[in-house]
C-alpha cells in the first residue's frame, strides 16, 4: 500500500462518507495487511508472534491474541523493530541532533520524529512518505472540519502561527513543516514561534504576525487568553487549534469567548499521528480508519465502552515502516460507541486531563509562568534518568526527585537544563535535589511529573 498525497486525501475523504459496515471491512483489511507485513518483515515482531497463527483470516477479534508492546521494549531493539533492514539507529540519532534536519527525509524516504519519554532516551519514530501522506491528509481534513473556517482563513491571508518547541522533532513541528511545504503559497505564511520564549516575547511575535490561524498547547493558550483580555495581545485569528494536552470544556469556552473564534482540538501522539479530532459537538471522534483503540485495565484486560480505562493499546494501521501494534499508551480514556448528533459513526473518546499545572515562579520584578510542556520538553532531553518528578514547593523553589543509576550526574544535567529555562524566563527559584523518590498520586496511581506543593 503506497499512497501519494492526492490518493491519501481521496482515501480519507471517501472513508468519511462510508457507513459503519463499510468502514469495518476496510479497517479489517488494513489490519490484516499490517499484522502480516510486520510478522514477515520485522524481526522483532517475527519473534514476538512466533507460534501465533497469522494468515489472511486474521481479524480485529483476534487482536487480543497478540502480546502487547511498549516503547521501552521496542526501542531496545529499534533496528529489529523497523521493517527496512537499511535503517541504522546511530545514523538517526545523529540526524536528530541538528534541528536543520526537521522534515528532511532519512535514506531519502523516511521522516523522523522523536517522542519524549521516561526511559531517559527519547523514542524515535520513522514514517514512510506514504504513511506521512495519510497522517497529514487526516490532520488537514479534520483541522478544517467546518469548511467555512478554511474559507475565512484564506480570506484573511492564510497566515499561521504555530507555537511549539521550535528545534524539536515532535509531531506538531514536523507535521506543520510538511503541511506548509505541501502548499508552496503557504510556506512564507507559516510561522513558528518558540515555546521556550518568555511570554512577553511570544506576545510580541504574535502581534507582529497577526496570524489568521494559530496553534498552541492548551496551557499556553490559557495564558495567551489572559494576555488578550489584558489588551497586550492584539490578534484576532479566525481559528485556534490546540492539542498535545487535554483541553477542558470550561477553558475552551473561555478561549472562544475572548478570541471570538472557534477552537479546534485534537488528540494525537508521535507514534500514531492524529488519533482523534473534535466534531462540531466537541466530541473527539477516533480516526478509526487508521487507529484501533483497545481500552484496557491495569492487567491488560479489555474495558467496555463507557468505562474509564487505565490505559489503551494502539494499533496504527499506516505504520508499516515501524509497526505499532497493541502499543501501550498510558492515557486514561473512556471510549464511547453511542452515536453523536454530528452523524459521524466513528466512536468518540474522552481523554482524562493530563493533570500538569502551570508553575508560577518568582521573578526579579514579577511572577513568571512556566508551562508544563516547556518543563516536559526540557526534562525529557536529559539523559540518564529512569524517572523523575519536579515539585514546585511552597517556598517556590524547585525540588527534583530522580531515579537514576548515577543520581549526582543526572541531577547535574537536569539542574543545568532547568536553570537555563529559569534564566530565559527570568525566574529566580532555586533547584534542589531531593532524597525522596517520585511519588505516585494516592487516588489515580499516576505519576504527576510536575507537581505543585499545596
Ligand atoms: Zn460528533
**Which architecture name of the largest domain does CATH use?**
3-Layer(aba) Sandwich
Number of helices: 15
User: What is the level 1 CATH name of the largest domain?
Assistant: Alpha Beta
Named once each, the bound ligands are: zinc ion
* Rg calc: 22 Å
Low-pLDDT runs of 5+ residues are none
Strand pairing plus helix content: what structural class?
alpha/beta
Helix content: 25-40%
Strand order of the largest sheet: 4-3-5-6-7-8-9-14-13
Distance between the amino and carboxyl termini:
53 Å
> Approximately what portion of the residues adopt beta-strand conformation?
15-25%
**pLDDT average, as an integer?**
87
The fold-level CATH name of the largest domain is Rossmann fold
Q: What's the story with the biggest beta sheet?
A: 9 strands, mixed
Amino acid at each position: 500500500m503506497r499512497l501519494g498525497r492526492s490518493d491519501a486525501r481521496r482515501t480519507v475523504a471517501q472513508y468519511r462518507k462510508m457507513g459503519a459496515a463499510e468502514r469495518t471491512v476496510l479497517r479489517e483489511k488494513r489490519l490484516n495487511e499490517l499484522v502480516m507485513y510486520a510478522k514477515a518483515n520485522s524481526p522483532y515482531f517475527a519473534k514476538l508472534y512466533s507460534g501465533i497463527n497469522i494468515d489472511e483470516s486474521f481479524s480485529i477479534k483476534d487482536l487480543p491474541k497478540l502480546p502487547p508492546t511498549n516503547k521501552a521494549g521496542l526501542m531496545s531493539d529499534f533496528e529489529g523493530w523497523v521493517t527496512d533492514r537499511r535503517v541504522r539507529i546511530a545514523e538517526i540519532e545523529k540526524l536528530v541532533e541538528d534541528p536543520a534536519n526537521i522534515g528532511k527525509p532519512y535514506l531519502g524516504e523516511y521522516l523522523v520524529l522523536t517522542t519524549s519519554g521516561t526511559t531517559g532516551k527519547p523514542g524515535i519514530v520513522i514514517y514512510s512518505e506514504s504513511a506521512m501522506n495519510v497522517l497529514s491528509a487526516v490532520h488537514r481534513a479534520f483541522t478544517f472540519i467546518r469548511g467555512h473556517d478554511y474559507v475565512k482563513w484564506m480570506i484573511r491571508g492564510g497566515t499561521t502561527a504555530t507555537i511549539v518547541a521550535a528545534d524539536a522533532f515532535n509531531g506538531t513541528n514536523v507535521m506543520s513543516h510538511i503541511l506548509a511545504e505541501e502548499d508552496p503559497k503557504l510556506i512564507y505564511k507559516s510561522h513558528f514561534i518558540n515555546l521556550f520564549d518568555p511570554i512577553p516575547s511570544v506576545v510580541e511575535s504574535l502581534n507582529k504576525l497577526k496570524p489568521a490561524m494559530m496553534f498552541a498547547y492548551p496551557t499556553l493558550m490559557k495564558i495567551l487568553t489572559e494576555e488578550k483580555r489584558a489588551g497586550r495581545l492584539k490578534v484576532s485569528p479566525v481559528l485556534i487549534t490546540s492539542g498535545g494536552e487535554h483541553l477542558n470544556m470550561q477553558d475552551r469556552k473561555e478561549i472562544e469567548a475572548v478570541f471570538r473564534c472557534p477552537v479546534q482540538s485534537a488528540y494525537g501522539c508521535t507514534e500514531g499521528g492524529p488519533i482523534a479530532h473534535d466534531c462540531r459537538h466537541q466530541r473527539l471522534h477516533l480516526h478509526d480508519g487508521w487507529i484501533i483503540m483497545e481500552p484496557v485495565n491495569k492487567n491488560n484486560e479489555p474495558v467496555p465502552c463507557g468505562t474509564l480505562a487505565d490505559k489503551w493499546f494502539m494499533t496504527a494501521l499506516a505504520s508499516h515502516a515501524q509497526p505499532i501494534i497493541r502499543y501501550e499508551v498510558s492515557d486514561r480514556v473512556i471510549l464511547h460507541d453511542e452515536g453523536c448528533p454530528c452523524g459521524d459513526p466513528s466512536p468518540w473518546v474522552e481523554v482524562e486531563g493530563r493533570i500538569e499545572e502551570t508553575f508560577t515562579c518568582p521573578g526579579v520584578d514579577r511572577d513568571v509562568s512556566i508551562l508544563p510542556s516547556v518543563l516536559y520538553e526540557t526534562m525529557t532531553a536529559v539523559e540518564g534518568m529512569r524517572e523523575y518528578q519536579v515539585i514546585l514547593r511552597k517556598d517556590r523553589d524547585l525540588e527534583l526527585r530522580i531515579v537514576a543509576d548515577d543520581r549526582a550526574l543526572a541531577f547535574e544535567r537536569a539542574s543545568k537544563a532547568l536553570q537555563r529555562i529559569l534564566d530565559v524566563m527570568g525566574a529566580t527559584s532555586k533547584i534542589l535535589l531531593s532524597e525522596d523518590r517520585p511519588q505516585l498520586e494516592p487516588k489515580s496511581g499516576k505519576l504527576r511529573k510536575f507537581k505543585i506543593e499545596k
